[in-house]
């Protein structure tokens, strides 16, 4: 089973599955030689740039992004990030989970939060 059927079969798509798919994709094309950390980072930033183009000059966009057809750009960002993490030997899922835990310690849910005009977060009791 491959591709979309596989995704449908799974409850949700895991980072490990995406990591394996990207590794297979590169290996089958002999593209490991292109997937250096630097190249992957530049490719990732390039895809973030493509994503940014969709939003630029449009003002604030409502949540839900009605009729948004740009899922592929988000996917490219994720795929390059997953691949970069793999090549750099980082367990992205574990690292992100740990960061979520650190965020919760840094910003307790019991506090009140406001933001400055420059976007900085202020915390109070
Ligand atoms: N050296 C490469 C080139 C591509 N890809 C994979 C990862 C991305 O998911 C996708 C990116 O493909 P393109 O560079 O063709 O970019 P787009 O799909 O965004 O096409 P375009 O820039 O024409 O819109 O392909 C990859 O793994 N390694």
From TrEMBL:
Catalyzed reactions per annotation: dCTP + H2O = dCMP + diphosphate + H(+)
Query: Cytoplasm among the record's keywords?
Result: yes
Task: Tell me where it mainly resides.
Answer: cytoplasm
Instruction: List its EC numbers.
Output: 3.6.1.12
What are its cofactors? Mg(2+)
Write down the CDD domains for this protein, in alphabetical order.
NTP-PPase_RS21-C6_like
Keywords for the protein's UniProt record, in alphabetical order: Cytoplasm, Hydrolase, Magnesium, Metal-binding
Question: Which cellular compartments is it found in?
Answer: Cytoplasm, Cytosol
Asked if the Swiss-Prot or TrEMBL record annotates the protein with the keyword Magnesium, the reply is yes
Fill in the subunit field for this protein: Homotetramer.
Role of this protein:
Hydrolyzes deoxynucleoside triphosphates (dNTPs) to the corresponding nucleoside monophosphates. Has a strong preference for dCTP and its analogs including 5-iodo-dCTP and 5-methyl-dCTP for which it may even have a higher efficiency. May protect DNA or RNA against the incorporation of these genotoxic nucleotide analogs through their catabolism.
- Identify this protein by name: dCTP pyrophosphatase 1
Q: What is the organism field in this record?
A: Hibiscus sabdariffa
Q: Taxonomic lineage per UniProt?
A: Eukaryota, Viridiplantae, Streptophyta, Embryophyta, Tracheophyta
């Amino acid at each position: 089973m491959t591709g979309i059927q596989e995704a449908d079969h799974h409850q949700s798509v895991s980072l490990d599955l995406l990591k394996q798919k990207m590794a297979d994709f590169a290996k089958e094309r002999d593209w490991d030689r292109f997937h250096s950390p630097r190249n992957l980072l530049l490719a990732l930033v390039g895809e973030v740039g493509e994503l940014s183009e969709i939003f630029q000059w449009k003002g604030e966009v409502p949540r839900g992004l009605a009729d948004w057809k740009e899922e592929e750009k988000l996917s490219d960002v994720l795929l390059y990030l997953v691949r970069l993490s793999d090549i750099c030997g980082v367990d992205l899922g574990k690292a992100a989970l740990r960061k979520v835990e650190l965020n919760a310690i840094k910003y307790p849910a019991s506090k009140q939060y406001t933001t400055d005009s420059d976007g900085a977060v202020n915390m109070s009791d």
